Amino acid sequence: MRRIGDDKTFALAVLIAALLIVGALLGPLVWPLGPLDMDFGAPLAAPSFAHPMGTDSNGRDVFARFLTGARISLAVGAIVVLAGLVVGGAIGVAAGIGGRVVDTILMRLIDALAAFPPLILAMAVTVGLGVGLKTAAIGIALSSVPFFARLMRGDILRIRTLPFVEASVAMGAKRGRIIARHLLPHTAPTMLVQCASVFGYAILTLAGLGFIGLGAQIPEPEWGAMITDGMQYALTGQWWLALFPGLGVLLAVIAANLLADRLEESLNPRSARNQVR
Amino acid sequence: MSGISAHVRARALAIAIAATVASPFAAIAAEGPFVINYSLPPPTLDPAIVCDIADNGFLAPLYTPLLRYEAKPVANAPEGITVTAEDTTKIVGYLAESFTVSDDGKVLNFKLRDGLKFPSGNPLDAAAVKASLEYMLKSGTCGTYFLEAAQFGNTEAIEAPDATTVVIKLKRGEPLLPHALTQPNTGIIDLKTVEANGGKTWLAGHAAGAGPYLLADYQPGVRAVFKANPDFFGEAPREKDVIVNFITDNATLLLQARNKQADVTLGLSKASVESLKGAEGLKVIEVPTARWQLIGLPNQTAPFDNAKFREALSYALPYDAILKNVAHGFGETFYGPYPPQFPAFKAELGAPRPYDLEKAKALIAESGVKTPVTAEIIIREGQNDQEQIATIAQGAWSQIGVNLTIRKLPASGYQEAVGAKTKTSAIVRFDGPSVDDPAWLLDYDLRCASAYNTSNYCSKDAEALLDTRHDLKSDAERQELWDKIAKIWVADSPRIPVYADVYTAVVSADVKDWHFAQDGPFDLNLWGR
Known about the structure:
The complex is a heterodimer. Chain A is mainly α. The model of chain A has no long low-confidence stretch (mean pLDDT 90). Chain A has helices spanning 8-30, 62-97, 99-114, 118-129, 133-159, 163-170, 175-211, 223-231, 240-267. Chain B contains 16 helices and 18 strands. In chain B, strands 1, 8, 9, 10, 11, 12, 13, 14, 15, 16 and 17 form an 11-stranded mixed sheet that branches. In chain B, strands 4-5-7-6 form a 4-stranded antiparallel sheet, covered by helices on one side. In chain B, strands 2-3-18 form a 3-stranded mixed sheet, with no helix packed on it. The chains are: A mainly alpha, B alpha/beta.
């Protein structure tokens, strides 16, 4: 079995993710220009040493906005993953061990939630609760709950029939202990992959909501909203306004998806890379 | 892998790209239909309902009012094109061959042209004109506002003593009424055709006028097709077929203009217009107008009810930066109730306020308003210039302790906010009166009870002065009145005029004539190749 550390694709994904995380955390502290600082003397300036990603129509530094945008996107991604994992995971566990009635009720609820296309559900929640970054995060988190719930339930149903779990039950172990000691740890690989996948989904959906004006509000420098702002200048020569936030979304989503893909490959004992040759 | 080689695939791709890029350039031939790409689809075609200056203009090809303004040349027009605009000092007959106004202004007498007919064949005689004017008068909508020039209840009678004479009798002389009767939405409607088609709801998507064009096809929000009216009494329109595409996305509008897919492109953002300056085969027309971008302040809501606070805000806005970065130079700064294009404008009373943060801070202290203040500013969705103005105001005003939240509303919500009886938010708004006369503007924008007073500005002194306008006989007396009102207005700082707009249109090199009207512009019969 090859070590995941030897996987170049995985290393690339980790590198991109690390760059984005470090940029998001430290960039706004280190970079001298703020995302809202306006320089009316330098509107729509092309990328230069002073402004590596140029400036927008109000003379704001696009690099400063990009870094703050990264912070917003990564934070929302993390919140969505955490919320989805906790809520969806709890529903999945309850459905998996709660018996037929509980399972049926919870899964029909999840089916109802999953009947809405995720983006439409996120849009509906955002509009219903009032447009903004917080409500967008709530909407995306809600739309991610079925992903976790179904997967967790499936895993729990599989693991609970394994001999070591049945042995624990036969020995009179309490339900809480079985869940904490035997079931949840064994769902970790699957959930880890799902977390990485949902993280990418969250960033992309946030950018989508921002693009149509349902995410971050003016003047928050969210990547999707920055792309929308930049679109109107795409044909007048100011390509940098939409390109860099677009690249940000692209890189973050690629990194998350590659991580999910490689983790799944590494952690799944049945995958080709883990077969004894 | 398929048997097609990489070389062949590359060539096929190159051909496909070339075809895609080249095809738009061949789309317009000078002999084909006249194509207009326009960013503002009208919400209705019913003359009684349209109120907005842009929507009103869209009716100009379809309806003929009794009167019209003469045209005057616009200075600095691009080479090879004659650009004209309304001369609002010269009103002449249109559907009416001639007209007279009695000395006391109470009786307006119109002599109609002989033998006029609607496209339906129905006679367009004095009885039809009387019926149409009375229909507008009783509509209770903007039609009533225009027909009475905001002097509600002033019309005593509309009479048709013979087939070609219409008489409007007023209780009090109203000098604005002839101006109102030049507006497209006061055009005469063929009410018999309306009745035959089920009533006035039919008018929302159809036309029943006797204008230079007939509406051959209309898909709301998508496109309109105009055909020259063969029975039009005036000079025949130069363009027989006109297609209007409604394109709200600025990038698409710009791309199509650049690819010369339209003879006339209206509604492009100023940044896009600037990028087309000097483009081969295109001309940019610029017409200074009596329309402006403003920030309306909710004068009856604290702390905006404090005049010093409002004045502070007006000094904390970087006008020149906005003019440069938002209007891209297509504008002019001023401060006062009237924009520079108004005949009543006086430079000494309407000079722009400088951007002076120290003065603004001192005024805030003087006002007694405790900072930080949290307020909301409303903009209309899809209006990038409004968004930019609000963003700049947000950044600038935060420096004097006023923290703005920008709220973007869809068109319907925005109209609701603008028309709300009591305003609680600042509003970025593009405004302009249909008639560039202070009386017309102040009647809706200054009167305390007016539903169209977008800032709830209420000055009893100014309103009392406005009430005296009908007693004044000479232009000098009226100018004196406008100056007095302007001084009160400036001292009260009720709202912030950001800049007066220079209207821009992008036309192809084939276009030889183009006309600007304050309402619109959409006088198609005065445009052509």
